[in-house]
Structure formats: structure tokens, C-alpha cells
Amino acid sequence: MNLLQNVIFAFPIITFLEKVNFLKYIRFNRYHHLALSMTMALVLYGYQLFIDKPE
């Protein structure tokens, strides 16, 4: 589910925002955005599993 949300944000939504001149990536592209957001999600899920483990 998270991957689908990140792909939708990284491609059609960012393309739209670039067309309306709201943002422009210079050295950071859509694939970097997707990889970073997925990495952050995995780190946060791992941290949550560590914190929520039963005692």
C-alpha cells in the first residue's frame, strides 16, 4: 500500500506540480524521491516493530 502511494505521488502528482511551477527538482529526480520515501517508510516500520514488541 505504501509503495502504491509513493509511486502515485512520485510520478503523476510531482509532474503536475512541476507543470504549475510549484516545484522543480534540480539534482533530485522522481526515482530518488521514490527510493528515499520507501527507505524512510521501512526504517519507521522497523522502529515501530522494535518499540511495540511484546514484553
User: Share of helix among residues?
Assistant: over 70%
Secondary-structure element order, N to C: HH
What's the tally of helices?
A: 2
Number of domains: 1
Estimate the mean pLDDT confidence. Answer: 92
Instruction: List low-confidence stretches.
Output: none
Count of distinct strands: 0
As a whole number of angstroms, the C-alpha radius of gyration is 15 Å
Amount of beta strand: under 5%
Structural class based on helices, strands and sheet pairing:
mainly alpha
From the spread of the alpha carbons, the general shape counts as elongated
Distance between the termini: 29 Å
Transmembrane segments: 34-51
Keywords: Membrane, Transmembrane, Transmembrane helix
Walk me through the structure.
The protein is mainly alpha-helical and 55 residues long. It has one domain (2-51). 73% of the residues lie in helices and 0% in strands. The protein has two helices and no strands. It has helices at residues 2-19, 30-51. It starts with a helix and ends with a helix. The model has no long low-confidence stretch (mean pLDDT 92).
SSE layout:
Elements: H1 2-19, H2 30-51
Helix pairs in contact: 1-2
Keywords: Membrane, Transmembrane, Transmembrane helix
Transmembrane segments: 34-51
Write a compact overview of the structure shown:
The chain crosses the membrane at residues 34-51. With 55 residues, the protein is an all-alpha fold.
Spell out the key features of this protein.
55 residues; mainly alpha
